[in-house]
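Thread: "does anyone have the structure for this chain?"

Original post by V.I.:
We have the sequence but no experimental structure in hand. Need at least a predicted one for the grant figures.
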Amino acid sequence: MKSDVTPKTTGAPMMLALLSAAYCLAYVDRLMIAVVAEPIKIEFGLSDTQLFLLTGAAFVLVYGILGMVTGWLLDRWSRSRLVAGSLGLWSLFTMGCGLASSFPQLALARAAVGAGESAIVPAAMSLISDSYPPARRPLAMGTFYAGGMAGILIAWTVGGWIASEYGWRPAFLVAGPPGLLLALLVLWKGREPKRVPVQRLGDMHGSTFGDVWRNRPLVWLIAAGSVVTFVNVGLVNQLGSFFIRSHGMSIREVGLIFGPLMAGGMALGLIGGGWIGNWLAARGTDALIRFSIWNVFALFPLYMLIFLAPSKIWALAATFLGTCVSVLYSPCFSAAYQAVSAPHTRGTAAGISNCANAVIGGALTTFLVGALSDYWRPVFAADSLRYAMMAGMGTCILSGIMFIHARRLVARERPDLMHT
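Reply from O.Q.:
Generated one for you, tokens below.
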């Protein structure tokens, strides 16, 4: 296969800014449920299993499954228009969450938010890969992901303040309208880059889903990334409740202290990871995968510091460090699997990755941790969530082993990508 030559796109910075802003709002809307989780639990009388079904599965199962569909569409239709349409959809249903009068209504509204948000990550990966050459992709991808961390900051600080002052419903009602305005801006200013010409690998043919499935190194990379997503997606929805229960913080304190620490740590990690990724990308895809392996194994002891810290101050300090390191690998991983993907399957591969991240890292492991917390509650009381999340950190070890296998497959089947 010839080397990937990405055409120069004059509108790339503008499109990257719009995508980053959209991802910011996506995180505001998806995390608002975590910010107001405790008041919702009290109002509707929910168990931890029900609560984490609401914060996890109700959103991410639809988000992930439809992500594969939108990924397929993105390889065929206008990506900027799909971004605008999905942005408007999820913003409307975010406001719908604030109008829900029962647990089923709220779960349905959350599912609709997930349906709308399913396009943003596959679209961004495809657009960035067609707008930036391989050596510049990690930083561009890190910048996009950092938009989500700005959303975390806004959700916890602004959303937490609104919820503490006016209740949980107004927090949703205020979060929706900015997305409707941004959707119009994407239609007006978003410029579609030229797609990289189709270059197939060996016997690849037929559907893009089939081409992805036959690409074994790509499948294992996506699988490894999905398992570790529990740390930087599933735990994001649970750490706020952990600080409320185990360290006695109020919703306002969580919003003003925990939220900025987590968002700041993740934003620093993503930008730093993007810079590191640009440096490593010049040395080949193997360097990107090796960094991901190191990063994933390092997360286990770092997060144990959060859960075992003797005081709130130390736990918060460990949270900043842990969340920073938890996303360092993300730009490198994204650039690696996009490099292993055939250019004509990038949207589909990103959709499949998004689905795997959502179903495995965001829904399945989150549900299991919630169920384990309920099971251990008679023994550990309020600390049951602490120990359940500690058990969930085993995903780091499993992911690291899977990344090692993926690296061996890349070396065997795609030696042209191992080094520059």
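V.I.: this helps a lot. Confidence is low (pLDDT under 50) at residues 200-205.
O.Q.: and Residues 12-192+205-417 form a domain with the Growth Hormone; Chain: A; fold (CATH 1.20.1250.20).
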